[in-house]
Amino acid sequence: MKSIAGAFGAIILLSTPVVFASELLAQDIAAKQQSAPDPQFLQAEDETPWLYEGSNVPVDREWQFGEIDNGLRYAVRNNGVPPGQVSIRVRIDAGSLHEEDSEQGFAHLLEHMLFRESKYLGEGEAIPRWQRLGATLGHDTNASTSPTATVYNINLPAFTPANLEESFKLLSGMIREPVLSDANVAAEVPIVLAEMREQGGAQQRVSEKTLETLFAGQRLANRRPIGTPETLGAATGETVQAFHARWYRPENAVVVAVGDVDPLLLAKLIETYFGDWQGEGPLTPAPDFGDPIPLAGSSGGTTVGELAVITEPDMPRSLTYAVMRPWRPVQDTVVYNEGLMIEAIAQAIINRRLETRARSGGSFLYAQVQQDDISRSADATIISFAPLGGDWNAALADVRGVVADALATPPSQEEIDREVAEFDIAFASEVEQSRVTAGGRLADNIVRAVDIRETVASAQVALDIFRGTNPRFNPAEVFAATQKLFEGDVVRGVYVTPVSGEAEEAALRLALARDTSPDENARLANRTISFDELPAIGPIGTILERKDIGLLDIEQLTFANGVNVILWSNNDEPGRVSAKVRFGAGYRAFEAEDAPYVSLGEIALVSSGLGEIDENDLDRLANGRKMGFDFSIEDAVFTFTAQTRSEDVQDQLYLFAAKLGMPRWDPNPVLRAKAAAEIGYASYSSSPASMISRDLDYLLRDKDERWATSTPEMMAKVTPEGFREVWEPRLKEGAVEVLVFGEFDREAVVQTLRETFGALPARMPLTPEIANRLPAFPAPDAPTEVLAHRGDANQAAAVIAWPTGGGTIRLRESRQLEILTEIFNNRLMDALREKLGASYAPQAISRWPADIPQGGTIMALAQLEPQDVPVFFAEANQIAKDLAETTLTEEEIARATQPLGQLYSRAATSNFFWLLQLEGASTDPKRVKLVPTLIRDYSSTRPEIMQLLARRYLAARPGWQLAVIPHGQELAETTPTIRPAAPAVMGR
């Protein structure tokens, strides 16, 4: 049986030089390791690792820990997923909560500054240097700032000993010795302000007011990581340097390195480049983050504290209230974790009851209870829900009634067992798949553990602790945990409404303080359903043909009813199976008047059940299993997708086939989806990004109504009967292709396919009209589309797009187009972000649908200030012109091909990647023949090819343009003066 690794290796050797010398590379690494002295500060196995001090959780011995005498701590580990990659994380224990009032935003600004210039990276060198190392900007080289920490992330693909050492050297120079000059601060602040502008609007105002209310009196109330325009505008090299000197010290740093290499080498490199780091002066203690404090004069017990009613005309209604408790460090012991697991079961029971109530047509669209330790500032139980209308009081009473019942009466053992089964399968799946857990994820787990002051446990230890807790999963202990969740000194809340005067703080306070009667009707009936009880889909199907497709040992089956199947059984991802069903005609199947029902289908089609099974029964069927049922609508096909397990794949296939063969048409999921669409429509106008998400697909397809987002007036006419009328024939027409990739019993799955998809009735063929219905693109002379949003007056967005193609005949060309688009993206980033400071994250994207012969685009977009929209169009058009008229250098091509080739090389180590490459191959064998060149097509090209493609697509016609500007403003017709250029650098 050929594995993914074998397939990947074969294709790499045939197609690309990216990792062609793997054996020589391994020998080179081994020689380097043999010559390297042992690290001095690794903790011995008989020592308690620094992460586990005060804990009796079994140490994950896959990790090795070290603590240098300067205070820096580190963790290293060998991991070969994906092959050849090393993931490095540097966590600094300083975030926005560590800032003084005059320094707000400095932690995040400093994150940007480290990528601008540092000891080993001159100004403007960061982006090309990391790209030459194969690291994709944003994906492999990134950073993030939270209230409690700043974390720098590097994923180094296809490393060599030389570039591994270079990466540690560069990273150490960034962390320890950034160049924090006035000029660099002045160049970076506009980029941060652009990022701030993109975060603005109604949603941001709600977020800020919520933090101010829930954390009143604490630093978290007014310490946004992005900062304020005033403090950022006042930043200087000296003040930013002071923040860096205070917090960027070895005592505040943790370095984590995981990869396909001996961890002793990683430890040596950490000690080499961080071992002599010394802080300046005495260590500054972290500030007191504060506690949630009850209102002055309260007499004890739970008190309804600070409340806020926020009126935002473009935001849907939502109500959040929280029971607040002080956060305190814990002893991360086995008993403590058992308690967490009991609390998790208690929350899951309440949430299932709330979801069941919402599904049955209650007064709220959704509701959820969640306990969270928030930024080491509060231990909070947060209750959030969305009222279906203006009667928020009734919705609040209904939600509190469900909670009150959970606090009044212990749950049944059956309810507990149901949730325990869900958690058990999640923990067991982690154990099964631990061998294929990516190194970057493991590194992130350490970073999170440090942040919350707890430990990490191996997947097996986590499962053992969970199963060891089983005797405590009983009504009495779960009931006690439920009550503990709602104990606290103070309750605070926020109501968001689009209607002024709909609520007042006094009324909200009264409603939260009022006693609530338990709602026993929310409890779930004790009922179990087995797949054994479900009816057969039809007579067992006949396989007409069974053959190898000519690639590895991937197999194709053709059934008498016309269903095609592609199977690949391999054991490279233990216990994991990817399954996908492609059927029907996708967007081609609909008429313009069907538009309101199209988007509802993605939400309500699966939820409406199958046969005699409704949505709640589907949950019961999936209990204790890892199953999925994602549904999506593509240009030319509908899809069901799931990530499942070897043990569950056969039942997963039954569910998919039953949805096609015996669908159910419950009205409640349709009515709920309709309500969600009506409630959320106004929020599309709240920002440029929301407007783009609402209208871009519709406009790019020349205003084809099938892609339109339906207005509330259109939704008002939607009925469950109309939903069925539109969707029922869609489930019966067009070919079906099933793909199953992963670890499974091939013959058992083949038999299941005979009983499920092979048993479906013959499909109705697509009519020629539907089969030939293709998306259009706006005409070359189409004027610039202008949309008006109701968000902040300094927010705008712009899009420019060119049509390309589609289908598999020129699929290799589409891969080269991705390289061209990456080059376009690099130039756009340099022009708009680094030189002009006009946009935080401009991007260029290539889309090429393989199932139809047209519909592809190259598109560039950015969020900007309104006056910079013409600048965007001018810059994008100039980039397109230059790419068509001038020959690219090998250096610029390498900046695109190295990261792109590495990105696809790593993706090619998963079953789902191969599934995506081969979907549609049962009826289009060209897709199989195109696989061997895949990596080469993405990772190498020539300047003349790039120029040819630029002439063919970017210069063949004007780009179609869309501007989204504030309501009441006009789109500038002339390009304003270009601001002085600043050197190109890399930030977050």
Automatic annotation (TrEMBL):
<keyword id="KW-0862">Zinc</keyword>
<feature type="signal peptide">
    <location>
        <begin position="1"/>
        <end position="21"/>
    </location>
</feature>
<keyword id="KW-0482">Metalloprotease</keyword>
<keyword id="KW-0732">Signal</keyword>
<dbReference type="GO" id="GO:0006508">
    <property type="term" value="P:proteolysis"/>
</dbReference>
<dbReference type="Pfam" id="PF00675">
    <property type="entry name" value="Peptidase_M16"/>
</dbReference>
<dbReference type="InterPro" id="IPR007863">
    <property type="entry name" value="Peptidase_M16_C"/>
</dbReference>
<dbReference type="InterPro" id="IPR050626">
    <property type="entry name" value="Peptidase_M16"/>
</dbReference>
<keyword id="KW-0378">Hydrolase</keyword>
<protein>
    <submittedName>
        <fullName>Insulinase family protein</fullName>
    </submittedName>
</protein>
<comment type="similarity">
    <text>Belongs to the peptidase M16 family.</text>
</comment>
<dbReference type="GO" id="GO:0046872">
    <property type="term" value="F:metal ion binding"/>
</dbReference>
<dbReference type="InterPro" id="IPR011249">
    <property type="entry name" value="Metalloenz_LuxS/M16"/>
</dbReference>
<feature type="domain" description="Peptidase M16 C-terminal">
    <location>
        <begin position="718"/>
        <end position="897"/>
    </location>
</feature>
<dbReference type="GO" id="GO:0008237">
    <property type="term" value="F:metallopeptidase activity"/>
</dbReference>
<dbReference type="InterPro" id="IPR011765">
    <property type="entry name" value="Pept_M16_N"/>
</dbReference>
<feature type="domain" description="Peptidase M16 C-terminal">
    <location>
        <begin position="236"/>
        <end position="289"/>
    </location>
</feature>
<dbReference type="Pfam" id="PF05193">
    <property type="entry name" value="Peptidase_M16_C"/>
</dbReference>
<feature type="domain" description="Peptidase M16 N-terminal">
    <location>
        <begin position="85"/>
        <end position="222"/>
    </location>
</feature>
<keyword id="KW-0645">Protease</keyword>
